Amino acid sequence: MRTKEQKQLADKEYRKRTKAHRLQYQSEWRTPEKHREHHLRHTFNLSLEEYNILLETQNYVCKICEQPEVREFKGKVRNLAVDHDHITGRIRGLLCGACNTALGLFKEDTKILQRAKEYLND
Predict the structure, then answer these.
(1) The dihedral sign for the CA sequence 12, 13, 18, 19
(2) CA within 20 to 30 Å of 82's CA: 28, 47, 60, 71, which one?
(3) What is the CATH superfamily name and number for domain 52-121?
(4) What is the mean pLDDT of the chain?
(5) Cα 57 to Cα 92: distance, rounded to the nearest angstrom
(6) 3-state class of 24 per DSSP?
């Protein structure tokens, strides 16, 4: 049986031997597009192609305010957020960050939203 020090040394040597392979793998597979594709599939069971079709269907704007996304992250305009029913998982559409946040703050409760609408109309 190996000692803790022997295992640590073997691990270090293994990492050193495989560094070039890991770097090549990361450069090929850890791209922003691959990450986005994985996130959409894992979180919403939505392919990147399906997201793009939904985006095109909405004319590249938010489904609520009908404006394009304006928020930026690291100097790039963010993608529209996938809005979904947290109970059923059904995708309702793509929203800008402001509308997505607003729905969350209103707890996605139509009664609260209706009262807010009435309040604004007074």
Answers:
(1) positive
(2) 28
(3) His-Me finger endonucleases (3.40.1800.10)
(4) 91
(5) 13
(6) helix
Would you tell me the crossing angle of helices 32-44 and 48-57 to the nearest 10 degrees?
80
Q: What is the pTM of this model?
A: 0.74
Q: What is the DSSP letter of 31?
A: -
Contact 26, 20 (CB under 8 A): no
Buried b (16+ CB within 10 A) or exposed e, 91-103: bebbbbbebbeeb
83: burial class by Cβ within 10 Å (0-12, 13-18, 19+)? Answer: buried
Structural contact between residues 84 and 108, judged by C-beta atoms closer than 8 angstroms: no
Each residue of 45-62: pLDDT tens digit? 999 999 999 999 999 999
Tell me the two tokens of residue 70: 């304006």
User: Of 67, 52, 59, 75, nearest to 97 (Cα)?
Assistant: 67
Beta bridge partners of residue 73, listed in sequence order: 76
Domain boundaries, the chain: 52-121
Using the predicted structure, report yes or no on whether residue 96 has a pLDDT greater than 90. yes
